[in-house]
Amino acid sequence: MAKSGRAFADRKKIEAIADGATKVVEVHDCGTVFTIEGGSGNGGGTITLPTIAAAGKGWWCKFVLIDDNGSTACTIAAASGDEDKIVAAVYGGLGDSTNAGTTAQDKAADSVSLVASKALAGDTVEVICTGSVWLLQAFSTDGDAAITISS
To answer: Which residue, of 10, 26, 41, 105, has the fewest CB within 10 Å?
Structure first.
């Protein structure tokens, strides 16, 4: 039987972001899952999203921390000119029923940060472009503000 092209239809693009690196995400990175190294050194680094106008409606990507974060926060930020255009919700304490729930939200954010020495392997940030704002959902295993929002 011939292979169906549908067998690979949901295959994800994966790209690693090195510890402490600065990364400018490009429009062609739509659909990419970025893995962020955090524990081997500083953690840290800044990741800048493409402009909303360039990305367009339906553009998305995901960031996943693959090591506990190091001594410096890793920040995911809107491009210049798109400040205050991130609609964000952070859900913390996953796996801990005493701390589970929304820990932060903002409808006019500039960036989110995976907090130094608090963000843990598996913490995830997903961004989706509506064509006018970034929708951002972040999920953390730590209920104590491991992912913070800045306006």
So the answer is: 10
Give the separation between CA 86 and CA 47, rounded to whole angstroms.
14
Instruction: Enter the CATH code of domain 28-150.
Output: 2.60.120
pLDDT for residue 18: 84
The C-alpha atoms of residue 124 and residue 137 are separated, in whole angstroms, by 8
How far apart CA 130 and CA 57 sit, in angstroms, is 5
Least confident of 12-26, 58-72, 135-149: 135-149
Vertex 101: Cα angle to 75 and 36 (nearest 5) = 25
Q: Give the global pTM.
A: 0.86
Please provide the DSSP assignment of 11-57 as one string.
PPEEEEE-TT-EEE--GGGTTEEEEE--SSS-B--EEEPPPHHHH-T
